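anyone else get weird line breaks when pasting these?? whatever heres mine. first is seq + tokens for prot A
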Amino acid sequence: MLEANLEDRKREARLVSIRALIAGLLAIAALSLVVVRLVHLQVDQHDHFTVLSRDNRVKVQPLPPARGLIYDANGVLLADNHPSFSLDITIEKVGDLEATIEGLSRLIRIEPQDRNRFERQKRQRMRFQGVPIRLNLTQAEVARFAVDGHRFPGVDIRAELVRTYPLGEHTAHVLGYVGRINEQELARIDKSNYAGSQFIGKSGLEKAHEALLHGQVGYQQVEVNARGRVIRTLESRPPVSGKDLHLYLDIGLQQVAKEALGEERGAVVAIDPRNGGVLALVSNPSFDPNLFVEGISQTDYQALLSSPDKPLFNRAVRGQYPPGSTIKQFVALAGLAAGVTTSRRATYCSGAFSLPGHSHRFRCWRRGGHGAVNLEQALVQSCDVYFYDLANRMGIDRLSGFLSDFGFGSLTGIDVAGELGGLMPSREWKQRVRKQAWFPGETLIVGIGQGSFLATPLQLAVATAAVANHGKVIRPQVARAAQAPGAPAAEQLPMLSHTIELGEKQQWDQIVNAMAKVVESGTARRIRSTEYRIAGKTGTSQVFSLGQNQRYNAATLPKHLHDHALFVAFAPVEDPRIAIAVIVEHGGGGGATAAPVARRIMDAYLGGATVLTDVGGERGD
């Protein structure tokens, strides 16, 4: 019995020893795995976890650059930056977003449009980036949040520089405006260079020169604590401010041009023919661009969109109008260049013109006709029949080709975003767009600047400057130079040009002299000056077509059916320093309505005294 108990105890002891050994081996194995894992984490992946650790306490913050300023030709500040305060929410730092916004709305006014903008921008940004819930806080609102801001973790007031336009509607169409970056813009811009930036050029000069004005983003590495608060700055690279732009634009002349248009809808473009510098670019009526910078209200935007005056429409570079008789000097040049006419060749004007074998009568503006007129007389009296005949003998191919050399039908390349190119009708264009053949009667209509022929006021000003230059066509430019921050001088922007060759200088002189007589004794004699000589051409642009037996009578027509009034000119004739194009929508005769606008602008620029002659009499153009 004793032996059996001893055997049992020995067996139990062996079993315990085996179990202890197995447990020990398992413990050693487990410990070995832990050691191996620790070695792997602390040795093999040391660099990786060091970076992760540093990223938890080191943040890279973008430093947006200050946008470049814009000055006129005389150093007047046209686009500035002023401090503005917004209320930003950093999503990752907020527990209950809806409750936070609800609490903020009891402290600071938050409109539905603020919520809508917040929701849009929230989708565009990372959770660690601030998203504005309210823009342009007042001083009182900033003070209220300063008192109660501790109750809203993840919500901060952010100060930023915001664009402002001191002269408002006087520069709206030429400078354009900046606005908040939208989703489409975010998809095409360099996101790294716009980190921290809220604004981008939306139209006009601001959009065309965005690359110069924006600058280069900077950054700073900061150390933060567990709650995300900045402890210290570790490293920084300051941003590079955008370049300042210095313009050819003369804001004094710009204001004179706007005042000269008065309440009329229309546009003025004035150019220095010596360098293509845009002295004035006005579209009337205008709007306040400051409304758009931080987001225009739906009410204000709808009011602008629904206005019959279309204040948002840039008539100077996007308005496409039949140029009317303002095209006749170019048609005359085309005839001289092609050898189809001479200065002496006369055409008899009976008041109408018919193509051989056709009964349709293309009428002259003077029903009784002008009699026998040569090239100069035809320009001075704006005889339609002379130019019907000249266009018919040239044909549309030579005519459209020559006029295209002056830039009609194509973009001028001006540094104002949104330009349209007008329309220079041709045989190819009609076949391509309308799938129809060209008819001879259409050539006649093109010869007097009507029908499908469309030109912008900018194109007319550029082409007129080319006549003043005897064929040198210069690309129009609003910005003259760009100056980097701290640079001692501004860098001149390049001037581009090409020359139209006629073969004889005398042909240019003939056209210039005829245009001078238009002002001195012709359809624009109302604005003739005793202080300097003006070369010009009047024009009217039909709003609707008249039947064969109908007669235009402005007294019986509503305002919106009146002809558009046009005038192009340059001065002084001997040494041109300004070329100008004016359109007054539904203004009637160019000599009576548009020419006085141009005279007032030229007097302001050249130092003359505006004295107009009341000539009265027939309608003319």
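and prot B, same format (seq, then tokens)
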Amino acid sequence: MSESFPRLSARTRRFTLGVPRGFTISPDGGRVVFLRSKSGDDPVTCLWELDTETHVERLIVDPRALHADEEDLPQEERARRERSRESAGGVVAYATDAAVTRACFALSGGLYVADLAGGQAHLLDTPGAVIDPRLSPDGRHVAYVTGGALRVQDVLSGTDRALATPESETVTYGLAEFIAAEEMDRMRGYWWAPTSDALLVERADEAPVNVWHIADPANPNRPATVQRYPAAGTPNAVTELFVLGLDGSRVAVPYTEEYLTTASWDSHALSIVTMTRDQKTMRLFSVDPATGATTLVREDTDPAWVDIVTGVPAHLDDGSLVWVASADGGHRLYVGDHPVTPPTLQVRAVLDVDHDSVLFSASGDPTEIHLWTWDGHSLLPVSTRSGVFSGRMSGGVGVLTEQSLDMEGVSATVVKRDGTAVPIPSFAERPGLDMRVSLGRSGRRDLATAVVLPSWHEQGSGRLPVLMNPYGGPHAQRVLNQRSFFLESQWFAEQGFAVIVADGRGTPGRGTAFERAVRDDLATPALEDQVDALQGVAEQYPDDLDLTKVAIRGWSFGGYLAALAVLRRPDVFHAAVAGAPVTDWRLYDTCYTERYLGHPDEQPEVYEKSSLFADASKLERPLLLVHGLADDNVVAAHTLRLSSALLAAGRRHSVLPLSGVTHITPQEVVAENLMLLQLDFLKQALG
């Protein structure tokens, strides 16, 4: 008997194991270093190298050979992986020197440095468990964080010393604070100088941040985890920057804005990017590392919010600034002071700058993400087929990853200077589903929508119960030309549902006006657009949808939207599964929440409008609330408080607490049975 899809999906971490990722190209383009586990159900990630001339792969690091595959991670590393949604183990992150001759990484808290030419990895002695090690550009030193201190070790001599030591238990040096990692995609807290003799280092003090306690009710003998959580309207961690020299020097880099969004240090400039608490102003500064003096390079403002884009700032060989900013209704690539992309091409991220060329991802159609280059004179498309693409570029050699509805998994290819393509094999498992996904537009707002039908269903042969399966929140998409986004939806469809996935206002890829339509109201536009999409699809499939049986399920913002749907529109939605839902935005973090709703003390009515608590007495449809009790992102208090409000209103509902589970559910048995329990609930709820 073949393995069920829920079990296979859980065992393969949603089919991500065995997929090559984390590419680094050597400056001459001759080698590509990357991460990949040995099979599609092996959670231990290894480090590999591909010779682009001979097309031969080499295994550089196997954690099992180092007897480090059984992981004993420090709490800070567990938190970092939670922020990055990392569900695998082994070598999940690494850093190289500038020449890509050495790589460093952490395994079970130990510090390792690998010689890429010889393929030998060595464990270095450290005074504590290691977080985020990074080699100096010349490869002579490796910096790392342990116990909140930033330390540097000479790779050859083993000499190890602290450059900065925390002054209290709430202080860390060299680590990204919670908000930076969770909401700004900044996973690092220090940057090496290109000359390898100094580092720019973040000092974060969480003393002002409110203390929350995340208990494990299933194990009352264990103490609650103490968490500093900056909920909306409350203080953030205080961040500072210092240039720390290997000679012991320490130079402060002052700034006045609330948030440090990113920093970079290349041969042209030491740069920092800051953002005000209201997120309406972003400033780029150049820094004199000798004095710490800052010079304003550019300032971007927006009446709603400014967008943080990964990969910038960067510089071409001639020193020209590479930047992304919103202008004329679109997210545009700037080189120097001039936009080089049209406002109709929505730039997503800058992926690499290779001498005078910029590799970036962008969308014309919001369901597609393509690769483009700017070569100093013109825009050139890199990806030409329909799908979702990403990549890297160095030394004139590129690595291109491709996904689409027409192909299983992820295709990774090295493209050499002469155009020769060298595939990097994926070992991912095949889901074993017959996909039947149709992408299109629906509703009055022409929303990007996917309709997923059972493979066995003949169109027009009968009406199916409907399952809406959205995320629906700002800055995230579900409707992309990417098969992996619809695997769970297809499985639910095979059980007898017509599944609809729609991206409403607030989601990226359609320009700033569409994204900013959720300002001051996270509830109304999101819910209206799900109803709009449902009605639009019903017009397109008049004989296939049973609108008397419509369910909705989602996780995180999708969970919030699912609960919102049955509370406010029971005339449309007849059952809901709300996983890890935000129920009151005052309980969610500062940066995300205040970006869309402002400060709760200044706009309390906005928070009331987007909260679910006042709607508790309206519940008349079956609602299943699911929440991991160890969730430190959307804490279980969201579900528990909504449940209390529903109970006080006398409204029947179900709560499924997941002991020991965080915001993601990597546990195999939990992930499998969670899908089966949701299916059972929905079938019973819809009759």
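btw re prot B: Residues 668-686 form the longest helix (19 residues). The radius of gyration is 25 Å.
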